[in-house]
Amino acid sequence: MVLSAEEFVENLRKADFAIEDWSALASGRNNLAILANGEWVLRTAIYGEESARFEIEVDVLRRIHERLPVQSPNPELVIEVHGCLSPVMGYRFIPGTILKRAQISQFDGSKRRRLGNELGRILTRLHSITPEQMSASKAQWSDTPNQWNELLDDSVRLLKPRVESDVWNRIRRKLKKSLSKINRFEFEPVLRHGDFGSGNFVFDDKGRIVGLIDFDSVGFGDPAIDVAGVISSTTPPDLLLESMSQTYLLTDEIIERARTYRETFPLQQALLGARTDDEIAIEDGLDGYLGA
After folding, report:
1. First CA to last CA across the chain, in angstroms?
2. What is the mean pLDDT of each run of 10 residues along the chain (292 residues)?
3. What is the reported pTM?
4. What stretch of H or E contains 24?
5. Can you identify the CATH homologous superfamily of domain 97-291?
C-alpha cells in the first residue's frame, strides 16, 4: 500500500517532528513530499526499492550545493522514520511557483528568451561537472543501452497484458525503432538532472527561474536527456531551443538524441501508471505515445 501524505505526517509527528501546519506538495514519480510549517520540505521515497536512488540524490545534492546559478535542495536532514520505507530528507523550502507547460508556452517573446538563456546557463554549469570531479560520488552511470532495452522488457511485462494485440504491436514497433537509434548513440557522460522539465523549475513572480528541484533521476549520462526535458516543457516543443543555444552548446547531434528520447516519455508515463495501477496515466501515456 502506498504511503499517503496524512500517514507520512503522522509518522513524522510520532518521531517528534514539531509539525504545526503542513501541505502536500506535488509528488514526483516515486516520492512523497510535504511543506512543514511553511519552511521545511520533508520528502521520502514511496517505494522501498527506491532507497538506493534516494541515497544517490542526497549525495549529489550535497556535492553540488551552491554550484548551480539557481537554488537546489540542500539536505540538512536525513533520518530514518518508522513507517517510512526509505529515509526522510529535509531541506529548506525554495520559495516560488511551479508553472505548468501551458503557462510556460504562453510566455511572451522577452520572457521566453530570458527563460531559454536561464535554462542554458543552468545546464552549462551542471553538465560541466564530470565524473572525475565527483570521485567517490554514489551517482551511477545512466542512459546505457542495457537500461534503455529494459524499457522493452518492462513494456512486455506491464503493458502487453493490458492492451489489445493491435495496440501492443504498434507500441512494440515504435519502441524498437527508437531503441535501434538509441543503441547507436555516442556521447561523453556528464552529470545530468534526468528530469529537467517544467514540473521541476521554481519560478519567481516575474517568471524567472530561482530553483531546480527533484534530482531523484540524477546520474552520469547523456546531456541530451536534459535537453529532452526542455523540449517536453513547451508547445511547440522547440520553443526555447534557439534562446537556450545562446548560453548552452546545442549541437545538431544533441538535439537529434533529445528528440528521440522525448518520444519515449509518454510511454514511460504509461509504464509508471501500470506499476501503480493508475489507469488514467496508462491511457494518457499511450495516447501521447501512439499519437505522437
Report:
1. 34
2. 89 96 82 95 83 88 95 96 93 96 95 98 95 81 95 97 97 97 95 96 96 95 98 95 98 98 97 91 96 77
3. 0.94
4. strand 22-24
5. Aminoglycoside phosphotransferase (APH), C-terminal lobe (3.90.1200.10)
